[in-house]
Write a structure and sequence with these properties.
single chain; 2,3-Dihydroxybiphenyl 1,2-Dioxygenase, domain 1; globular; PhnB-like; VOC family protein; Glyas_Bleomycin-R_OHBP_Dase
Length: 287
């Protein structure tokens, strides 16, 4: 599994409580603990929690599918996530799963718990919901992402016409559920016609750690082309409005320097950038 790609969840100063909550539920560990950034490990997967302030609220356009091996495991997670949370689809038996539930926890993160004995090496799989102007574009998004990232592939694809059909007012050729991988990291996606009161925003993004400037430039240019938008500090939105952070590993190395003055110069330089430029970080570090 590729831990150079991982989700980032945005918080308004309650990231630490959320980190402790998830580590307790899923048996994880906090691996980095600062006032702004926390990293946690859940089942060998990295998650970043960012105390960024009251600017963005997490919503169900990006949820996290937890692949569970037993009904008891699902029930255990559900009972804990339900504390202060809201069930979006009750824990029950459905045509596609013997045991399944969709829930928003007290921190605004949504989880899909699914019984699947044939779990791979990635137990938690981010799931992107393509709605409103993006409805019907899940296949286009998968094709774009798998083209951009090396070592990628589209897996199983279930269209509404193959399964639920038109009784849910969904277009038959749209994606009901699909699996794809980018550089070995698994994601799910789906189209949905319901007029949800939310859409993709910066509250849930994907971080990609890059090895050099060439990789940084290629990913940045590919994801911002054809309707994407550049933001600051390595953040961007692709043409579907989904947020990515393209972060050179060198940035983390320089920011972690024990010489606080040097590290702070790097942070100050990074704050002025859109795309991260490694040479400019190194110049700031050495100045």
């Amino acid at each position: 599994m590729n831990n150079d790609i991982f989700p980032c969840l945005w918080y308004n100063d309650d990231g630490k409580q959320s980190a402790e909550f998830y580590c307790k539920i899923f048996g994880g560990a906090i691996t980095a603990d600062t006032p702004v950034v926390l990293n946690i490990d859940l089942f060998g997967q990295k998650f970043m929690l960012l105390n960024g302030g009251p600017y963005f609220e997490k919503n169900a356009s990006v949820s996290f599918m937890v692949m569970c091996e037993t009904e008891e495991e699902i029930q255990n997670y559900w009972d804990q996530l339900e504390s202060g949370g809201v069930a979006l689809m009750p824990l029950d038996s459905y045509p596609w799963s013997k045991k399944y539930g969709w829930i928003r926890d007290k921190f605004g993160v949504t989880w899909q718990l699914n019984l699947n004995e044939n779990i791979g090496n990635q137990k938690i799989i981010p799931t992107l919901m393509f709605i409103h102007d993006n409805n019907g574009k899940a296949m286009e998004a998968m094709e774009l992402y798998t083209k951009i990232f090396p070592g990628s592939k589209i897996g199983n694809v279930l269209k509404y016409g193959d399964g639920v059909g038109e009784e849910n007012h969904e277009i038959p050729e749209n994606i009901q559920h699909a699996h794809f991988e980018i550089s070995g990291y698994s994601l799910f996606c789906m189209d949905n016609s319901y007029d949800h009161q939310f859409d993709f925003n910066e509250a849930i993004s994907m971080v990609v750690m890059t090895n050099d400037q060439e990789e940084t430039d290629r990913l940045w240019n590919s994801l911002t082309s054809d309707g994407g938008t550049e933001s600051r500090c390595g953040w961007l939105k692709d043409k579907f409005g989904f947020s990515w952070q393209i972060v050179p590993k060198k940035l983390i190395q320089l920011m972690s320097d024990p010489d606080q003055e040097k590290a702070q110069k790097v942070v100050q330089a990074m704050m002025k950038m859109q795309k991260i430029v490694i040479a400019d970080l190194e110049e700031a570090y050495s100045s």
